[in-house]
């Protein structure tokens, strides 16, 4: 079993600005880069998901790196251990900083991907932080009376296998931190300003609630990318995380 030490990882965010990840849910690279360039210094981290990555491939990641942006590649890997480990090795070569794997892929697969990042870090090479997706937020809790029990259990097996942390909604942050402590990194999507439109999100939370609950990063898509003034909303998100 491999154990990483996320507290000593230089990628753990230091400032509120470093905690904001903007989801580039766009169908093509041109539109996505227009948004990146419009946001400029107001945003350091971007999430690239399946839609954009399958359209543009790794060259888009190069365009983000040229702009000195951090990359969260959200491909939610779920396969046999050897395939997942090889995939993480390929992603590391593309300069990905943070990436997702499905925890239900199983203990052997999680240990295999963790072994790859531990090996790369051991050689002084960069490797993405690995965060586990426990239960997709589109799925109902198996036990509505105890809505986070399955998530907390899966999260425990993820860190036991050496993953760096998890992706989870804001409401799960308290139960996760309570059960597993402050060390694993936590990425919370579904973030809205109090007056914001929920869109299709069921589990939403504010930036300040996410940070108070123990989130390291928040992921924000449409509230910023569909705003009339995306820079102003990005700055508002950061100010709320700073308690301003
Ligand atoms: O536009 P919005 O802020 O809802 O976008 C949230 C982003 O976070 C999307 O890219 C979505 O796929 C992602 N995400 C999520 N819930 C999860 C995991 C990822 O909303 N549990």
From TrEMBL:
One of its GO terms (cellular component) is cytosol. Pathway: Pyrimidine metabolism; UMP biosynthesis via de novo pathway; UMP from orotate: step 2/2. GO terms for molecular function: orotidine-5'-phosphate decarboxylase activity. It catalyses: orotidine 5'-phosphate + H(+) = UMP + CO2. Substrate binds at residues 25, 47, 74-83, 137, 192, 201, 221-222. The active site is at residues 74, 76, 79. It is an enzyme of class 4 (lyase). Its EC number is 4.1.1.23. One of its GO terms (biological process) is 'de novo' pyrimidine nucleobase biosynthetic process. Keywords: Decarboxylase, Lyase, Pyrimidine biosynthesis. Residues 19-237 form the Orotidine 5'-phosphate decarboxylase domain. Belongs to the OMP decarboxylase family. Type 1 subfamily. Homodimer. Catalyzes the decarboxylation of orotidine 5'-monophosphate (OMP) to uridine 5'-monophosphate (UMP). This is Orotidine 5'-phosphate decarboxylase. It comes from Eiseniibacteriota bacterium. The gene is pyrF.
């Amino acid at each position: 079993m491999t154990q990483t030490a996320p507290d000593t990882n230089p990628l753990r965010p230091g400032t509120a600005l470093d905690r904001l990840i903007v989801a580039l849910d766009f169908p093509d690279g041109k539109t996505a880069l227009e948004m990146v360039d419009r946001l400029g210094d107001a945003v350091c981290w971007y999430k690239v998901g399946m839609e954009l990555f399958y359209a543009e491939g790794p060259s888009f990641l190069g365009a983000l790196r040229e702009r000195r942006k951090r990359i969260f590649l959200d491909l939610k890997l779920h396969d046999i251990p050897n395939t997942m480990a090889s995939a993480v090795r390929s992603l590391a070569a593309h300069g990905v900083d943070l990436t997702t794997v499905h925890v239900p892929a199983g203990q052997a697969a999680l240990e295999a991907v963790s072994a790859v990042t531990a090996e790369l870090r051991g050689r002084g090479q960069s490797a993405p932080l690995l965060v586990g997706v426990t239960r997709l937020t589109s799925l109902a809790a198996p036990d509505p009376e105890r809505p986070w029990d399955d998530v907390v259990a899966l999260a425990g097996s993820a860190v036991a296998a050496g993953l760096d942390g998890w992706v989870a909604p804001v409401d799960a942050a308290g139960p996760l931190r309570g059960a597993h402590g402050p060390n694993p990194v936590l990425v919370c999507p579904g973030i809205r300003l109090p007056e914001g439109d929920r869109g299709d999100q069921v589990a939403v939370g504010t930036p300040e609630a996410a940070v108070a609950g123990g989130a390291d990063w928040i992921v924000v898509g449409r509230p910023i990318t569909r705003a009339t003034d995306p820079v102003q909303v990005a700055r508002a998100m950061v100010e709320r995380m700073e308690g301003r």
